[in-house]
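Final report, Chapter 2: Outcomes

The project's central promise was a pipeline that accepts a single protein chain and returns its three-dimensional structure in a standardized token representation, suitable for archiving and comparison. That pipeline is now operational. To close this chapter, we reproduce one record exactly as it appears in the project archive, with the input sequence first and the structure output second.
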Amino acid sequence: MQNKENTPKAIVLMLLGMSVFAMQDALIKIISEEANLFLIYFTRGLIGVLLLSLFLYYKKEPIILKTHYPKLTILRGTLFFISFTLYYYSLTKLSLAKAITLFFVSPFFITIFSIIFLKEIIGPKRWFAIFIGFIGVYLVMEPDFSNFNIFSTFPIFCAIGYALTMIIQKITSEKDNLYSQTFHLFFAAIFFASIIGIVTGDGKFYDSTTNKDLMFLLQTWKINSFSMVGIFLSIGIITVFGFLCVFQAYRIGSPPSVAPFEYIIIIWGLIISWFLWKETLSLSGYIGLFLIVFGGVYTYLREMRKKVKITINKPLR
């Protein structure tokens, strides 16, 4: 069934989706000292599967779990899991604003990987936009090579892995629909989190005196308060809602027109970081943020002027 184009509605959906994803990241950062990251993955995956199934049942659409690209689907799920493990772990070491800003180097990596794997032709102006974006990343990172913060590279590694998953999704979307691709991500998260939980879920590898920095990854799997139950449920609901908003935005809107509104998540990251943790970017960080957004938006505008349809209907998270 052909979706009727409605770019204004798509922009609203994108703004909603990105806004709730900012809330999700904030909630994960808030409970990082009380909850195990892989338990969050596990419960989020279960809630996601349940809610997405109910959504498809309500829409009277079939629930399709089969993939026509099993190897690529496994690779995509693995990359997505590892990439966002790095990103969410970085939230314990960086401000929310900084982590979100650094992650948004992903459009540049998507462009680069499109050249390598999809044989797209990129002109000098888009290469210039990529170069400007990476200068912005450098400024946001504020590298002090005498005391380098390795955790500031984690959102960038996440962006690289995420970009690769988007290229894979572009390939598999020839036969696998968006909802089945989302199920695959949820099942991958449940599978990997379960394996890790079986091995480390009792907390036997966590020692607060020697490896306190790994608390978010190694502490015991437990949900010990009603407030934490509420946060876990909220994260699961937010994930599905955000996915559906972004999916629908790309389905009914012109992608080059809709995609720049993803950057609203950075504004929310700045606002939330300030109000909850009194954290913000430095002056060089704000300059870098401007350059990243400028490079990304310029890339999308070039696509629009060339009238090239971006066919990656992509979930951000």
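Archive annotation: The CA atoms of residues 110 and 116 lie 10 Å apart.
This record, like all others produced under the grant, will remain available to the consortium after the project formally closes.
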